[in-house]
Specification:
Layout: H1 2-9, H2 14-19, E1 20-22, E2 27-32, E3 39-44, E4 57-62, E5 74-75, E6 85-91, H3 93-108, H4 115-129, E7 151-158, H5 165-168, E8 176-179, H6 194-204, E9 213-215, E10 219-221, E11 226-230, E12 238-246, E13 249-265, E14 271-274, E15 279-281, E16 288-289, E17 304-307, E18 316-330, E19 335-352
Parallel strand pairs: 1-7, 10-19
Antiparallel strand pairs: 2-3, 3-4, 4-12, 5-19, 6-7, 7-8, 9-11, 11-16, 11-17, 12-13, 13-15, 13-18, 14-17, 18-19
Helix pairs in contact: 3-4
Amino acid sequence: MRGSLRTFIGTATLTLALSTIVLPEAAYAAKPVGSDKGATTEQTGGSDGTGIYAAARITYSGAVAKNGSKGNVTSSDVNWTPPPCWYAPYLGAKDFKKKTSKDIESQMNAPGMGGHAGAALSELQRHYEDDYGWADTPGYKDYNVDKDGEGMFWAAVENPDEPDILKRSSCNDLPFWVDNGEAPPPQYEEAITPEILAALAYQRMQLPDTEVSLKPEGTTKVNLPTWAWLDKAVFDEVQATAAINAPGFALQATTTAKPVSLKLEPGTKDAETYPASGECTINADGSIGEPYAQGKADQTPPCGITYLRSSGNGTYNLQATITWEIAWTGTGGAGGDLPDGTFGNDQAVTVQEIQSINR
């Protein structure tokens, strides 16, 4: 019955306004965090002009993209995506009553409001005012104002970076009450957890824009091995943290990306990579490859490329893609692995013929 009543109430246009907090562009504090190459970002429900403040708020710190935008990590698992929506603390009882009762009253007085939509609004009003519930969803007496300060109403939050509107709006249950210090009822499987926060930190993680060192640099010769490497000093693990804090409720998760390999793609079939797979693994000291040194011209680099044909008047687009191993830890000792992430850079390489003179 829970599902059928929810569908019935859903015929009212008010339901979306009440049950989903659509987060605006995140506020951004342009400050680097320690030695990380990111900044603190805050995502919040904001206010509605009446002074009511939506407590659903996720704060990002560490190696995260600026201005609340998506990071530059691409998941190696094409089937994995961050959560499209979730449930999080929204408003205290008195504030929720102030907002919701005003919205219901406004909709009821709207021209042409009748039939199924009007009936749905009446049912919604009964649910929050007259203790009208169903199945495993209890009703509330006067919006639970006698418990104000002892808990909060939770509501759905859309992930603004989810392009599929159906997925983004799939958390469509009405706002529900959670006592301070208690877990949300089990039927709300999308209620915010450390694992969800870890996935959101992953989505906003900004990996270092590291350019691979090459020797010869920029311009090389046909059949001359080009050495490629990354120093540990500019190539190290990064972390991004997502946290949510509301009265009686706090969670956090830190997602860590550790570099594990570098893949070289020459930009032409007329080339050989070292090793043959193009996958250069990480060394014991955390670096990748080996810097070229005097006297190594005739040696095969542990990580590199030999171009077999000139690039003519143009260049080859060398793509260097780093694979990062992703893991997370969170509140209460939670933790686990997330799909590996990748991030690639393109570098223009000019390949010239070696000129010889016949005498």
